[in-house]
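Structure ticket #2291
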Amino acid sequence: MHTAHLIVTIAAAAWVGFSAVSMFTRAKWVVEPITEYGVPRSWWNLLGTAKAAGAAGLLAGLFWPPVGIAAAISLVLYFSGALVTVARARAYTHLAFPVLYLAPVVASLALLP
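Resolution: structure written out below.
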């Protein structure tokens, strides 16, 4: 296992896990924008769960790479969907936020040994 992959994957998992916790705790800086984007409140726990599972999958992938690959691909799809959601809401100044989560996941996938 390469050191760069290890560091980037752990950082990506922590960052995505932080996002999941923020969703579960209904942090104001998360709840206000997703409400503006039109994301139904009934989806919030599912979205948080998807992020938490993705973060756990990234970490599990350090020991069993196929799980990490599946988790990374799933998170890329998740945050790509977030980009589309933000763009459809015409909140163009917010497009950077999903990218901040997407980039380290993509880097983790790209650094696979």
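Closing remark: The longest helix spans residues 65-88.
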